[in-house]
From TrEMBL:
Pfam name, any one: Hikeshi-like_C
PANTHER family for this protein: HIKESHI FAMILY MEMBER (PTHR12925), PROTEIN HIKESHI (PTHR12925:SF0)
Official protein name in the record: Hikeshi-like domain-containing protein
Domain of life where this protein originates: Eukaryota
Start and end residues of each Hikeshi-like C-terminal domain: 137-194
Record-annotated Hikeshi-like N-terminal domain positions: 7-125
Family from the record: Belongs to the OPI10 family.
Length: 195
């Protein structure tokens, strides 16, 4: 009897999770290059043992290296299904400078794996939500810094300017004032930009 199921858009439901141990289960998603999201769920046939949940992991296996498992989140008896975004995880894995293949070229596999590890509830790792206000603040600050560095790289003094009737010039002080105001508003209300 299958305990877990996996839904990938446009494909049949998968319930073929292979037991690796009494608490670890694994399934393979073939041709996973263009998959954006997966749904992992309990089938209802077998619940988790009392006080446990399933930590869900994702990996792009490489035949030349150990698996690079990334935590997606969890499912439990009280949260029997979850949708996980995986579209950016392969790119992150390929660019991972700390992976075990950093000194050699790895073969890119087109199959992915989903692993579920049954753990005590107190050991379940929560994955930060992308809607976390702190992640918005960090993103906005990095974006602003990048924008300011880009603009400053083109700055010239007035004495070095060449008149160009087709160009529009904005004083750098105006951009710096905008940057300061945006940063202040972001610190006061991380969601101000949503209104």
């Amino acid at each position: 009897m299958a305990m877990f199921g996996l839904i990938v858009s446009g494909r049949l439901v998968q319930t073929e999770f292979q037991p690796i141990s009494q608490t670890q289960f694994l399934t393979t998603i073939t041709d996973a290059d263009n998959i954006n999201h997966v749904v992992v769920f309990l089938t209802g046939a077998i619940p988790f043992p009392e006080g446990t949940a399933g930590q869900v992991f994702f990996s792009w296996p490489d035949p030349n290296a150990p698996p690079n498992w990334q935590i997606l989140g969890h499912i439990s008896n009280s949260k029997p299904s979850a949708i996980f975004k995986i579209s950016t995880l392969k790119k992150l894995h390929e660019m991972d400078t700390f992976s075990s293949t950093m000194f050699g070229q790895s073969n890119i596999c087109h199959n992915a794996q989903i692993g579920i590890s049954i753990e005590p509830l107190m050991n379940i790792t929560e994955v930060p939500s992308p809607s976390n206000p702190q992640s918005h603040i960090t993103f906005a600050q990095k974006m602003l810094e990048n924008f300011m560095n880009f603009v400053l790289s083109y700055s010239v003094s007035q004495t070095n300017m060449v008149p160009d009737p087709t160009a529009t010039y904005v004083p750098l002080s105006t951009v710096q004032n905008w940057y300061t105001n945006f940063e202040r508003r972001l610190a006061q209300n991380p969601n101000f930009w949503k209104t």
